[in-house]
Amino acid sequence: xxxxxxxxxxxxxxxxxxxxxxxxxxxxxxxxxxxxxxxxxxxxxxxxxxxxxxxxxxxxxxxxxxxxxxxxxxxxxxxxxxxxxxxxxxxxxxxxxxxxxxxxxxxxxxxxxxxxxxxxxxxxxxxxxxxxxxxxxxxxxxxxxxxxxxxxxxxxxxxxxxxxxxxxxxxxxxxxxxxxxxxxxxxxxxxxxxxxxxxxxxxxxxxxxxxxxxxxxxxxxxxxxxxxxxxxxxxxxxxxxxxxxxxxxxxxxxxxxxxxxxxxxxxxxxxxxxxxxxxxxxxxxxxxxxxxxxxxxxxxxxxxxxxxxxxxxxxxxxxxxxxxxxxxxxxxxxxxxxxxxxxxxxxxxxxxxxxxxxxxxxxxxxxxxxxxxxxxxxxxxxxxxxxxxxxxxxxxxxxxxxxxxxxx
Length: 408
Hints:
Layout: H1 7-38, H2 41-52, H3 54-68, H4 71-94, H5 100-128, H6 134-184, H7 201-214, H8 216-245, H9 250-269, H10 271-297, H11 304-332, H12 338-350, H13 353-367, H14 369-389, H15 400-407
Helix pairs in contact: 1-2, 1-5, 1-6, 2-5, 2-13, 3-5, 3-7, 3-12, 4-5, 4-6, 5-12, 6-9, 6-11, 7-12, 8-9, 8-11, 8-12, 8-13, 8-14, 9-11, 10-11, 10-14, 10-15, 13-14
């Protein structure tokens, strides 16, 4: 069976991509709006914090709940909620009644519903795709997200430039509504092993954490993902600041950020071939070092064109790592634990995301963007060193079974 012949996988991927399209566009739009209201980089960083912080507080209980509840209904409710939030803020903007606190509130609502949607869709993948196609599906998903990242930022900034904040918010709401419709026509049961509740919520959460702590390599990969997300959270604001320093317009900055989407697509599509060339252990370590080198290059970018190129390389290596670690995890975790283990892993992976946004804004405002770049480059190098010296990862450098199972 070919992946594209699975009807419900195509609908699920399309719904996820439509949702990511909004997120990618708002990564640029929300900071720009806050900058226009306040002129403060630190205040702009708060928007990113509010969209990412809910993951830290909600992911563990929601991981257990998505193993109990209907994952399709969870995702549908999230998209309707986000549609209402964006549409309401768009109406307020149309009548000139919007301020930075309204934007912060919608950022928070969007962030909370993102947690529900993100955990549910990650757990649902193994329900619509056969186990042997999961690595290919995870790579294709990442490519879909990358495509949304290509289209989202320039499209959002163009809409914002010509139709204002109201137009950008209405467009985002329409994408969420489209995602809801695509999910509504799914036929597959997305909780294949859903059973009657026999444990308390705490016991179910503990079961998922116990499994994860016993899987040392899965845990390590999640921790490194957390460090990479610390860096990734800072990228939009750093790109905006560097672009403004180079005299770029808002539309040009949006196009530059879209280069990250191109890198994401290329990185995710290269995942299978990368594994065949290097194997899992070497592939992961090499990706981390190339990511660190690319981020360090931001310190010396001389032009907007080079900024876009380097941005694309950074996100490309980030996506390549994300594909490899997710494919390894989703094939390792029992289906009945997918929600709980994925939520624990993603709690680790996203726990530093709010700090990345806040740190980029505060450091860039008070000490300059170059200091921010030095700090985040040092973090990237540290992550590569940890992977290189890891005893958990070392056996996979020569472990053919891991290479074959992930590159299949």
